[in-house]
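Re: your question about LiaF transmembrane domain-containing protein

S., sorry for the slow reply, the queue was backed up all week. Below is exactly what I fed in.
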Amino acid sequence: MENEERRDFRQMKREQHRRFRRMRHHTNDKTGGIVLIIIGVLFLLNRIPQTAVLFPTWFFTWPVLLIGIALITAIKSRFRNPGWVIMGAVGLYFLLEENDLIGLNLKPFIIPVGLILLGIFITIKRNRQCNNQKFKGRFKPWQHEDIKKALEETTDSSEDILNVSSIFGSIERNVFSKDFKGGTISSVFGGAQINFTQADFEGTAIIDVSVIFGGVDIIIPSNWNLKNEMSVVFGGIEDRRAVTNNISESGKTLILKGDIVFGGIEIKSY
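Result:
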């Protein structure tokens, strides 16, 4: 009887977690769609002579487009992925340079200062992740061991939730979790290879992927069903897996959500 109660409790927590993630992704997609509508309206107004005079000449240039893509990426990721900062900074720099708003005395310092700020940003993010792991599980509102175990399996198990961030570097990660719950992959001016051949899960798992001027290789078992819901801008995603007939039998669906900007994702299987 106790085993059934624990199983029902874990199932309830999993369903709550999945509903929350579906609601969050629906909100992000809706926000991105609204932003695209606004951009389209602005371009339309710029084509009409009566309203074109309302916009400055620099407004419809590629640096502004880069800044706009950075803002969309930031909103959809809830400002968690650092890629939008780099993209926005690059767009802002070229926007200021094209309009002669950067003095000659400041240009030699732009790149060093940018690298310093990026290093500080990465360090702060890494320390925050380490602190979260250090204090994870110390303060629980419940003391019953069964409930604590159930909560850890559904929300607090670090090995079951993927968190990969590759910035100006390369990362290889092998996932061995048998109760994989999804996670995030960020690749900014870098590369990442994630191997799921030893992983397993039930039902559906969602991975948020952000690729900006980088590449990600995802290796999954051939019998997993893959659902691509990525937004791609000047990039691509390619599924190189061999065609197999036992995909529907596994009942496992891996959903990829997120953004690709000047980058690519390659799906493989062994």
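The radius of gyration is 22 Å. Residues 132-158 have pLDDT under 50 and may be disordered.

Happy to talk it through on Thursday.
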